[in-house]
Amino acid sequence: MTRFWLIKLVRTVITLWFVVTFAFIVLRTSGDPVVALLGADAMPDEIEHFRELWGLDRSLFAQYVSYVGQMATGQFGNSLRDSRPVLEIILERLPATAQLGLAAFIIAAIIGIPAGIVAALRRGRLTDRIVMVFAVFGFALPNFFLGILLILLFSLYLQILPSSGTGTFLHLLMPSVTLATFTAGTLARFTRSAMLEVLEKPYMRAASARGVPFWQRVLFHALPNAAIPIVTVIGLNLGQLVAGAIVIESVFAWPGIGRLLVVAVSQRDLAVVQGLVLVIAVTMVLANLIVDLLYGLLDPRIREGAK
């Protein structure tokens, strides 16, 4: 088990290193941030001064070594816009995104998993068709479009929910529901498929022949054996919730890291963008790492196969 965990941890570190390196190179070669910040009419000596001040006059390799060295000590540099530490800026916005993502995940899990189970148990019937229609609607409808529809309905027409901002449960409701819709639809479809496969297994028929009650067979026999594909989808969508928050936070003016990333990209604030890309990458990679570790706990055969 220890070796299984070590292998996953090493792969996680390598993946994060690739993400950091790729983001660094792309951001450094996509344009001059000094010109973007000062404007095209800035004087050449002024541009050169700020390039030296921010270390952008050095070679790309020297900048990369310096950046990696700073990261190793927990430093992500200072914002080019206001000279504040990047970590401080991100930590200010992170709680809002975490609150939004957690609320969206809870809503998606509460709706998606039970809906998929019910659809599998009612296969081919009206209930199954209704659940699948809503599931397809959930992951096919763009989040930003759904968010605008909700604002038009509940904020402008009914005037019962705030259209933007944060601070109360009512502010959280529409953004979290909008963000959860895709994940709920995906969970419903994958849960249905996993349950249908398990329900046809011989051990399920054997449990029925032994007189095991129906819901006991579903909860203690079928659902645990269908857990691995469900856990996979949950892990993938945990990371996507953070990435999806970029759009949702912009639609609802939610003060999280997603909205911060949009502003930082528009301002060519390289240090902030690099820090945010790393945070999003860490979230997605850790979600996949947790899924891998859960695989080993749920199915010992997977753990043995890693040795």
Summarize the structure.
The chain is mostly helical and 307 residues long.
Q: Write down the secondary-structure element order.
A: HHHHHHHHHHHHHH
Q: What gap, in angstroms, lies between the N and C termini?
A: 8 Å
Which runs of at least 5 residues are low in confidence (pLDDT < 50)?
Answer: none
Radius of gyration: 24 Å
Q: Could you say what the CATH architecture of the largest domain is?
A: Orthogonal Bundle
Instruction: Classify the beta-strand content into a percent band.
Output: under 5%
Structural class: mainly alpha
Task: Count every beta strand, where a strand is a DSSP E run of 2 or more residues.
Answer: 0
Number of H- or I-type helical stretches:
14
Structure description:
This protein has helices at 2-29, 33-38, 44-53, 60-72, 86-121, 126-140, 143-157, 169-199, 202-209, 214-225, 227-251, 257-266, 270-298, 300-305. With 307 residues, the protein is mainly α. Helix 1 packs antiparallel against helix 13, helix 5 crosses helix 8 (169-199) and helix 9 (202-209) packs antiparallel against helix 10 (214-225).
